[in-house]
Design a protein that fits this description.
By secondary structure, the protein is mainly alpha-helical. The protein has 28 helices and 17 strands. It binds (2R)-3-hydroxy-2-(alpha-D-mannopyranosyloxy)propanoic acid.
Length: 726
């Protein structure tokens, strides 16, 4: 693991330890001094990776305060810490309800039910999962009763969509979505119970917190609940705020999936949660979809209308698998645009909570614009679920760099990353731990042993184009036909948006059969026919990219090129009687016969005939055009000789402005893709790397910084994701 990640995992663990209160973790040192419902679920996701016992205790402490009707309260108050938060038990007066649990102080509302997802994670992450089974047995009926409560009490029309009745229940307290329903509430201050806000006593800029008008309404609603003794039927009749929210319902839907799997683990019937998941998914997809906005919106039950305010909550049906393919594609276009933050945009971090181009967008105010780690953490999984791997990876990397660069804050500026709200925020720390662990776990077990690699190295390799059947065309047309065919494969089977290749359909297609026939023609091809530097670069880059795809398809590689021993040296094309592997093309030809990273010798020996085709001087931009079948490398493009310099510029610009290049000005450090490590010499050493990044960076501030500190910068390298771009 990279040192920078290991160090920050330690920091994150220390934060969780210092926020630990004996049987649960508070969200932050002073601003939130009690136990919060969904915070605990996220906190336990992180702890699940290194301290199963505490992760379990966190969840069990919370569920001890579950109401008798199944409701899981938003806050479980810590008696020792009373007096520093508003509203506390004296204001909630939940003892008016017959459902409150004994000996517990809680609030009278709930929050998005993430918990079943956490419980499943605790089980999966534990090294001794059998030992977790008793916990699963204890918690399962409680999770079930929480979901039952929601469907029974909060879904009066039995639609599969549950309502929230307070902005605090949404978890996204002052989201612009609530402006309209809250705005409709006419508050008579004289009738409002007296209260004092405490959240502004922690040295946090009031501009980054909800306003007093919002607090008046929060208080009005709490007063309404307590007047009605927390009886849902009575509240429902009177409450001006009843909303079917896409975030809450997506979390519930996704949690039902986990609940069904937990039931199966325990040998119980998973039908009930499965049916809930299906019903809610269907209802989200039909009722909450806003076809003109390409997003899911909340529905206001009181006003009988959709609230046409588009926030990141509207993307979360991806997390639940509730969006249809078409909806997912349209959502993707929306979130991957400058409205939110597009791939390679360069001046933004992940997905802000609100559309940056809307009038009410506020980059520093709480849930009205900043980036929140938990929302993006769910979103990254949603994007991955629908195959938007590149975007998911970029979200993931942004989520990792925000705490490293700006601290473990509550929320972050969506443009420059500044941390806002409280520092040492527990879920930021916990989800950081989860993200790093999940990443490294996905990399495990895919390499093959040294012995197998050595055997593969001396075995001579697999020639992919050794067929006897030759294409019927004059030899001088072969390279252009081949390039045309490569372009055909790219157009049909490479999904550049998702950064994926559909290997299964490609292997069975006529286009691929035709391409393979053409590659047989390479046996008689004479590369001296390639004239001019552009033509040579285009030919070898395109050929490299397709031999990799061809090799993956032919060897039936499932997850990572690392599954096949010595892949880049072993698959080969016979070109004019000589054999070329991707390594030969890359290090021998395109890198002007250089030494590959970790090898002792140059790619071609002194008398190697293939040296004739070396492209010199090295064109470093080709590193961003060579596709290695992995997620960390270049998206697949087709390079045309006439346009290749412009295309290489684009490739370099995309890469430099993506999360493969992270500038840490505070530490005078560059966190870079391994590509800049392995091929440092091609860029002219470290100074050349800095110049290169300077040339292609689109952010003026970043350029200025690079210019001023070039000589003082240190480098660290981000992990390389070898998973297949499948
Ligand atoms: C924020 O909400 C609380 C009320 O629940 C508050 O503002 O006092 C929200 O960010 C919420 O999502 C979070 O669970 C809570 C504690 O971190 O703080």
């Amino acid at each position: 693991m990279s040192r920078i990640f290991a160090d920050h995992i330690e920091k994150a663990k220390n934060i969780l330890d210092s926020n630990w209160q004996g049987s649960s973790t508070k969200p932050a040192p002073s601003l939130y001094p009690h136990q919060w419902n969904w915070d605990s679920a996220f906190i336990a996701m992180g702890r699940a990776h290194y301290d199963t016992a505490r992760a379990i205790q966190e969840i069990e402490t919370l569920f001890k305060a579950q109401w008798k009707n199944g409701m899981l309260p938003q806050i479980v108050f810590n008696r020792e810490a009373l007096g520093h938060y508003f509203p506390e038990p004296d204001f909630w007066q939940t003892e008016r309800s017959p459902h409150v649990p004994e000996n517990q102080l809680t609030s009278g509302i709930t929050m998005p039910p993430v918990h079943a997802i956490t419980v499943e994670k605790i089980f999966k992450s534990s090294r001794k999962s059998r030992a977790v089974l008793p916990f699963l047995k204890r918690i399962y009926p409680r999770l079930l009763s929480l979901h039952e409560y929601l469907y029974r009490e909060r879904d009066p029309e039995n639609e599969g969509l549950v309502y929230i009745r307070h902005p605090w229940e949404s978890g996204i307290d002052n989201s612009p979505t609530w402006d309209e329903p809250l705005g409709r509430m006419k508050i008579d201050k004289a009738l409002l119970p007296h209260y004092e806000r405490k959240d502004l006593e922690h040295g946090i800029d009031p501009k980054t917190r909800p306003g007093d008008d919002e607090y008046d309404r929060y208080v009005y609603l709490v007063d309404l609940f307590r007047r009605n003794n927390y009886e849902e039927a009575l509240i429902m009749r009177e409450c001006p705020f009843l909303i079917q929210d896409p975030l809450f319902n997506s979390v519930l839907c996704r949690a039902n999936e986990s609940l069904a799997r937990i039931a199966e683990l325990l040998g119980k019937d998973p039908e009930i949660p499965k049916n809930w998941a299906e019903k809610t998914a269907d209802a989200i997809s039909k009722k909450l979809w806003h076809g003109e906005h390409d997003i899911f919106d909340a529905y206001d039950i009181v006003a009988h209308k959709t609230i046409e305010v588009d926030t990141a909550a509207g993307f979360l049906p991806l997390y639940a698998g509730a969006a249809t393919r078409e909806q997912a594609q349209r959502i993707y276009e929306r979130l991957n645009s400058s409205s939110f933050c597009s791939l390679h945009q360069g001046n933004c971090f992940t997905i802000p909570n609100y559309d940056t181009q809307k009038q009410g967008f506020d980059r520093s105010n709480y849930w009205r614009g900043p980036v929140w780690i938990n929302i993006n953490w769910m979103l990254a999984q949603g994007l991955r679920r629908y195959g938007y791997t590149l975007k998911a990876d970029s979200l993931q990397k942004d989520l990792l760099q925000l705490p490293i660069r700006f601290g473990f804050h509550e929320y972050f500026d969506s443009f420059n990353g500044t941390g806002y709200g409280t520092d040492n925020f527990s879920w930021t720390a916990a989800l950081f731990i989860d993200l790093v662990n999940e990443f490294y776990a996905s990399q495990k077990n895919e390499g093959v042993g040294l012995a197998k690699r050595l055997r593969a190295m001396i075995s001579g390799g697999i020639v992919l184009n050794d067929g006897a059947e030759m294409p019927e065309l004059p030899p001088e047309d072969l390279s252009s036909e081949l390039l045309r065919s490569i372009k055909g494969l790219r157009d049909r089977f490479y999904d550049t948006k998702r950064g994926r290749v559909d290997y299964a359909s490609l292997s069975k297609s006529d286009e691929y059969r035709q391409y393979r026939l053409l590659t047989n023609g390479l046996q008689k091809y004479d590369p001296s026919q390639l004239t001019g530097r552009r033509e040579k670069i285009a030919f070898w880059v395109n050929l490299y990219n397709t031999i990799v795809v061809d090799g993956i398809a032919r060897l039936g590689i499932e997850r990572s090129v690392k599954e096949a021993a010595y892949f880049f040296g072993r698959v080969k094309y016979n070109i004019g009687g000589l054999l070329y592997s991707p390594d030969d093309i890359e290090h021998g030809i395109l890198r002007a016969n250089s030494r590959p990273w970790f090898h002792l010798f140059k790619q071609f020996g002194p008398s190697d005939e293939r040296k004739k085709w070396v492209v010199s001087p090295v064109e470093p931009r080709t590193h961003f055009a060579l596709v290695c079948g992995s997620r960390s490398c270049a998206p697949i493009e087709y390079y045309e000789p006439q346009k290749i310099y412009g295309q290489l510029d684009e490739a370099a610009k995309s890469f430099v402005n993506s999360s493969e290049v992270v500038i840490l000005p505070e530490e005078k450090k560059l966190l870079l893709s391994e590509i800049f490590h392995w091929y440092e010499d091609d860029f002219g050493g470290k100074p050349g790397v800095v110049d290169f990044i300077f040339d292609y960076h689109v952010d003026d501030k970043a350029r200025q910084f690079l210019k001023e500190t070039a000589g003082e910068l240190t480098f660290e390298y981000i992990y390389y994701d070898w998973n297949l771009n499948r």
